[in-house]
Design goal:
Length: 277
């Protein structure tokens, strides 16, 4: 008690009675009630806004679902039309990819507009997203550009047998980013369009025939004329081998262990899988 007289000097207030404590408790309860009322009002307002926005959200969802169905129908109609018109299968696959992207982009913009997003904001966001995506997906954009080059330059088409970048096979399709090949052992290879369009392409199907080279090695003691005769007679009995151009045997290298030969034969493209290799 000797120091109680210092408390007013230090700014410390000591309740003088239980009534003062009761008043403080009442004030705290009142503040708590006000905070609860404000929180309740905020949640009620948000819920009411959600209920007001719900019909618009449902309309946008319905438009999106209907738009997906319409987009698929349009894609099918375009596919059937191109098929009846006997369009290039390569262009058909590439065109389908572009049409899908265009239709889905338009559908998303329509749904955002229904939701009340200003068109100017949509254009701004799309532009900014385009720049960002362009920087992040430079390789994909290169593949897209490469697809256009392959589509218009037409170094090959679907069904051709090509050799490019160390890979070979039948061209199954050119989509928006990749060229799909089917190898002789039925493996599927996906090559980026930018790699194919920027590299050398050997098209073995432009004249409807394919050449097969079968390498082998014979001893230096062997009679090369006899070996050549036996090889030509052997391949001549195969039904899939063409006589024009005629099969031939050539010396490719004089190796350390023997003479390296190559048996060259030509087959129709349709018989290539059945031909020996």
């Amino acid at each position: 008690m000797g120091h109680m007289w210092l408390m007013p000097i230090w700014g410390i207030t000591v309740p003088e009675s239980d009534n003062t404590l009761g008043e403080i408790a009442a004030e705290q309860i009142e503040h708590g009630q006000e905070a609860l009322e404000q929180t309740t009002g905020l949640l009620t307002g948000l819920w009411q806004k959600f209920l007001d926005f719900l019909p618009t959200l449902l309309i946008a969802l319905i438009i999106f679902l209907i738009g997906m169905v319409i987009a698929r129908l349009i894609d099918r109609v375009i596919g059937h039309t191109l098929k009846k018109a006997k369009a290039d299968p390569t262009a058909t696959g590439f065109g389908h990819s572009l049409v899908r992207i265009l239709l889905y982009t338009v559908l998303i913009i329509i749904c955002l507009s229904v939701l009340g997003v200003p068109m100017a904001s949509i254009i701004t966001v799309v532009g900014a997203a385009g720049v960002t995506i362009g920087l992040a997906l430079q390789n994909s954009l290169s593949n897209l550009a490469g697809g256009f080059v392959l589509l218009f330059a037409k170094p090959f088409q679907a069904g051709d047998y090509i050799i490019t970048n160390g890979e070979e096979g039948y061209v199954e399709q050119i989509n928006i980013l990749y060229t799909q090949l089917l190898t002789r052992d039925h493996r599927k290879i996906y090559l980026p369009n930018s790699v194919v369009s920027g590299g050398a392409v050997v098209n073995l199907s432009q004249k409807g025939t394919l050449r097969i080279a079968v390498p082998l090695t014979v001893s230096y003691d062997a009679n090369l004329d006899r070996v050549r005769t036996v090889l030509l007679e052997s391949v001549g009995h195969l039904k899939c081998i063409l006589h024009k151009p005629a099969p031939m045997v050539s010396v490719t290298e004089l190796g350390d262990s023997g003479v390296h030969l190559s048996v060259l034969v030509w087959v129709d493209q349709a018989d290539y899988f059945a031909a020996p290799s």
